[in-house]
Amino acid sequence: MTLEKKGGKKERSSDQIELKLIKAILTREYPTGSTLRPERELAEYYGVGRPTVREALQRLERDGWITVRKGHPAIVNDYWHQGNIMTLVHIIQNHDDVTDEFISYLLELRISLAPVYIRNAVAAHQPKVVALLANLDQLNPDADSYAVFDWELQKNLTRLSPNPIYLLIVNSFDSFYLKMARRYFSIPEHREASWHYYHELLNVALQGDVIEAECVARKAMEKSLELWRNRTVLEQDK
């Protein structure tokens, strides 16, 4: 069974059931350790056949959301510990509210990834990295401009890295990154720190210094996390 989506594309009903169950888990309608309704009840509840529900449950188990038990309702897993990259994609796509804690998680992840793919990009395509940063004087000093520029910079740097896995990971955040970045860059101090970082990265890229490029990126990523955490602490103390 398929359902019509925008743009004329077809979406399998099992995809819709999967997304509805993920939403129910994320909103704690089904908290960690609880059980889903039996397959028959889920089929009746969503108005589909049991094979459709079974297909959705199989994908949920594959991605770490649940543990399917033969003859018993599925158990909801701790998806932070038992999930995979697809779990992360679904979390991002269903994160209606961008929480401070979730932004901290992503900034921590960026510390691990960005310095390496930036080093690799400078090593493999130094002139192209320079070109990405050559027009910094045209960057408007508002949060939206910084968010768009930073997102495009990250994607282009991963494209210039010889390892395609980095681009796949970064692309996973496509529906979420700008929303997060606009919040981060709404603070003038954060924009100023990134302004200095972009110029530092441009200077080391001009020199073709791959080791220093990695160091500059790591320090900037660590600074971003520090600034964000300080901001959240100040807001909590108000």
Automatic annotation (TrEMBL):
PANTHER family: FATTY ACID METABOLISM REGULATOR PROTEIN, TRANSCRIPTIONAL REGULATOR, GNTR FAMILY
Domain HTH gntR-type: 11-79
Organism: Brevibacillus formosus
GO biological process: regulation of fatty acid metabolic process
Signal peptide extent: none
GO MF, any single term: fatty-acyl-CoA binding
PROSITE patterns, per database record: HTH_GNTR
Keywords: DNA-binding, Transcription, Transcription regulation
Protein's UniProt name: Fatty acid metabolism regulator protein
Gene: fadR_1
